[in-house]
């Protein structure tokens, strides 16, 4: 069994889209994701839901092969994009968690496509012998 998805939005990294806000009650600063990232994450979840989610979040070891198609040739942090995608997969209910017990292996590549920025990925069971450190 495998799952293939395509999110037709320009990829947004989570850590590059942070902002410092002030808690109105305590007057202390805290870091929050930007409105841009929050909208991107919400839209990604909707696209994933429209393509069909697993009946239950995945709890077994998987390999994720992902391709990020960026709208510009500016340098980007592929690991940052990956981490954002993992969090979105958990929020959408595709994965139970984004820890090493579930994401056993991953491959990510970044490409340029000015006219059609997107994220494409395939989730497959990790075929090699793999020991989960804890059960969910």
Task: Provide a descriptive summary of the structure in words.
It is a single chain. The chain is an alpha+beta fold and 136 residues long. The chain has 2 helices and 6 strands. The protein has helices at 35-50, 78-92, and strands spanning 3-7, 18-22, 29-33, 62-70, 103-112, 118-125. Strands 1-6-4-5 form a 4-stranded mixed sheet. A hairpin with a 6-residue loop joins strand 2 and strand 3. The mean pLDDT is 91.
Helices and strands: which structural class? Answer: alpha+beta
**Structural shape:** globular
> How would you classify the quaternary structure?
single chain
C-alpha-based Rg, rounded: 16 Å
Order of secondary-structure elements? EEEHEHEE
- Major sheet: arrangement of strands: 1-6-4-5
Distance between the termini: 20 Å
Mean pLDDT: 91
- The portion of residues forming beta strands comes to 25-35%
The portion of residues assigned to helices is: 10-25%
> How many strand segments?
6
Q: Which parts are unreliable, with pLDDT below 50 for 5 consecutive residues or more? A: none
Q: How is the main sheet built?
A: 4 strands, mixed
Number of helices: 2
């Amino acid at each position: 069994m495998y799952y293939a998805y395509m999110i037709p939005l320009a990829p947004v990294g989570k850590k590059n889209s942070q902002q410092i806000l002030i808690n109105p009650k305590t007057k202390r600063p805290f870091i929050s994701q930007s409105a841009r990232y929050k909208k991107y994450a919400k839209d990604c979840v909707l696209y994933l839901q429209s393509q069909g989610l697993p009946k239950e979040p995945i709890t077994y070891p998987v390999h994720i092969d992902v391709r990020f198609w960026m709208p510009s040739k500016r340098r980007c942090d592929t690991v940052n994009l990956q981490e954002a995608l993992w969090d979105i997969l958990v929020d959408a209910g595709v994965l139970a968690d984004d820890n090493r017990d579930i994401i056993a292996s991953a491959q990510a590549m970044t490409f340029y496509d000015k006219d059609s920025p997107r994220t494409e990925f395939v989730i497959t069971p990790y075929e090699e012998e793999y020991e989960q450190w804890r059960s969910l």
